[in-house]
Structure prediction request, 317 residues.
Amino acid sequence: MSERETFAETFSYWYYRSAEWAARTLPERLGRRLFAGAAAVEHSRNHGQRRVVSRNLARVLGKPPDSPEVRAAVREAFDSYGRYWYDTFLLRALPAQEIRKRFEMRGIEIIDAALERGRGGLFCLPHLGNWDAAGRWMTLHGYSLTAVAERLRPERLSRLFLQHREELGMKILPLAGTRKVGEELLGLIARNEVIALVSDRDLKGRGVEVEMFGATRKLPAGPALLSLTSGSPLIPCAMYDTADDGWLCLITEPIEVERTDVLRDDVTALTRKLAGRFEEFIAAAPTQWHMWQPAWPEDEIDAPHGSGLEPAPAEDA
Prediction:
């Protein structure tokens, strides 16, 4: 028997259901205005969320949280997140030829080379730009792509996002028991498929300590562990929004480490290399980094308990 929904969960469901309807139904110019307006309202009213984003961007920019540069970046980050949600739902309404026209893919030959070796590919990316657009482009071009996603509450909200991604052509593996997910991912690798892992946030607190932007935080160990145990290459990539209402996907060369006899040490070394690549990606477009939770542990004490802009629909493995 499913748990009874709270008022906040019911509100979240209808909030996203309404957003989905608006993005897919209204003329694009009007839809973009509506979502930009919602982002402006959220920036104005949600002081707790604004504080979290300020602290995250202050570290990235190397400026005090109350500096004019950070305040301007925070406003732009809210605008970017509003666009993210609009584009996410719009993707299902856009014709395939329109997506191809708006999308620029750099480095797809790296994925092709990995697939030729027969061990699949681990597509690792931060919460940057619009990763759903990359998934849609990949499936339109014949790639079999599976993404790992956190189960959301209420359950019907999880089903909404599951249906959304399946209609974009992706397969979704719910993040439930770690062991079960790992076994299913190994099976996908054995079938030479591409797996997308949003990997810049440690959900369980058991990740690898890395340094990003001069401070220590944790990244999940799962991507590196999966790569090292399966032989599938760990391929960092980044998504960026472009000024013409389009998207850019940047796929970079796989990262590797010299293996030792201690798997834990190898996982740590590979994860730290991944963190370095993520740092470069985020520094290139800080306001497109959709990190709406405290990115560094010392900032968690001031984290808000909820936001109208959450949840992010794809989560870390």
